[in-house]
Amino acid sequence: MSTATIIDGRKFSATLRGRIAEEVTRLKNDHDLTPGLAVVLVGEDPASQVYVRSKGKQTLEAGMNSYEHKMSAETTQEELLAKVEELNNDPAVHGILVQLPVPDHIDDHAIINAIDPNKDVDGFHVINSGRLATGARGASAPMIPCTPLGSIMLLKDHLGDLSGKTAVVVGRSNIVGKPMAQLLLQESCTVTIAHSRTKDLPDVVRQADIVVAAVGRPEMVKGDWIKPGATVIDVGINRIEIDGKNKLVGDVATAEAMEHAGAITPVPGGVGPMTIACLLANTLTAASRQNGLKEPNLL
Ligand SMILES: Nc1nc(=O)c2c([nH]1)NC[C@@H]1CN(c3ccc(C(=O)N[C@@H](CCC(=O)O)C(=O)O)cc3)C=[N+]21
Ligand SMILES: [Mg+2]
């Protein structure tokens, strides 16, 4: 029985963060510019607190400024919009991320679309999704959502040219599924977006040279759904309890999938670390663009 190559996102992201740190040093020395990332966290969700702490730490390690704004779970939409406006107008802040999900009484679309699109390092603003969908370049190039961007980097590193490959994205969220499909299309893949209502999902996935699982259901994609030799990108981060112990698992049944796939991203240590590295990359890109400087080539 063959076994899949593990795609090491932790290692790739460390290299990428190293490149980002070098570029930050260059910006500081040559242009007296320190990129700044503001992260806004509303409420006390423990998982969100962990991510925000991790982002803050890695932002500082890359030599950038990190600004954390913690707001109570009772924050009103008006108060959060006022915070976003303050950050839009702060020249030291080049990137703004409002940690999702926000509490139910706040309309997340309204918040996302209040962020200056050029500071929208998550790439969730409708202007950025429009720019991505239309292939805008140069001064109006999109900020690209971090998880799909990191996933494409891993795919291209492993496979080289993706042109002509069949890709199935399982999941249709605005955050991962839809932008991932756009990026794969841009790489000239033949793209299918599958979801909870897709008929014969296992057979649809079996067509794919590239499988991207982004459904948020623990180990939903089974090993025998994977075409022999396919490349599997597991975007899921699910906390489950097994024998009284907390465990992190993806959306793919990894152990079984290893028997079929050519290569697969593990959870943890796959896409997750790439997401944060790409957030830093986007912050660097945003700072460069906002100051009329050439964008660094990070790969
Ligand atoms: N506006 C916004 N932008 C986001 O990008 C965003 C968000 N809201 N809300 C929450 C999700 C989740 N997310 C992760 C980032 C890194 C890891 C990560 O580094 N994971 C590690 C370890 C995870 C662990 O041990 O808990 C890994 O997979 O190896 C996971 C998840 C970003 N998100
Ligand atoms: Mg099998």
TrEMBL record:
InterPro entries: Aminoacid_DH-like_N_sf (IPR046346), NAD(P)-bd_dom_sf (IPR036291), THF_DH/CycHdrlase (IPR000672), THF_DH/CycHdrlase_cat_dom (IPR020630), THF_DH/CycHdrlase_CS (IPR020867), THF_DH/CycHdrlase_NAD-bd_dom (IPR020631)
Domain of life where this protein originates: Bacteria
CDD domains: NAD_bind_m-THF_DH_Cyclohyd
Domain Tetrahydrofolate dehydrogenase/cyclohydrolase catalytic per the UniProt entry, residue ranges: 7-122
Gene3D superfamilies: Leucine Dehydrogenase, chain A, domain 1 (3.40.50.10860), NAD(P)-binding Rossmann-like Domain (3.40.50.720)
Reaction(s) the record says it catalyses: (6R)-5,10-methenyltetrahydrofolate + H2O = (6R)-10-formyltetrahydrofolate + H(+); (6R)-5,10-methylene-5,6,7,8-tetrahydrofolate + NADP(+) = (6R)-5,10-methenyltetrahydrofolate + NADPH
GO CC field: cytosol
UniProt keyword annotations, A-Z: Amino-acid biosynthesis, Histidine biosynthesis, Hydrolase, Methionine biosynthesis, Multifunctional enzyme, NADP, One-carbon metabolism, Oxidoreductase, Purine biosynthesis
Transmembrane segments: none
Molecular functions per Gene Ontology: methenyltetrahydrofolate cyclohydrolase activity; methylenetetrahydrofolate dehydrogenase (NADP+) activity
BP GO terms, sorted: L-histidine biosynthetic process; methionine biosynthetic process; purine nucleotide biosynthetic process; tetrahydrofolate interconversion
Residues given in the record as NADP(+) binding sites: 171-173, 237
Record domain Tetrahydrofolate dehydrogenase/cyclohydrolase NAD(P)-binding: where: 145-290
Pathway(s): One-carbon metabolism; tetrahydrofolate interconversion
Ribosomal protein among keywords: no
Quaternary structure (record): Homodimer.
Biological role stated in the UniProt entry: Catalyzes the oxidation of 5,10-methylenetetrahydrofolate to 5,10-methenyltetrahydrofolate and then the hydrolysis of 5,10-methenyltetrahydrofolate to 10-formyltetrahydrofolate.
HAMAP family in UniProt: THF_DHG_CYH
Family designation: Belongs to the tetrahydrofolate dehydrogenase/cyclohydrolase family.
Protein name in UniProt: Bifunctional protein FolD
Species whose genome carries this gene: Kiloniella spongiae
Gene: folD
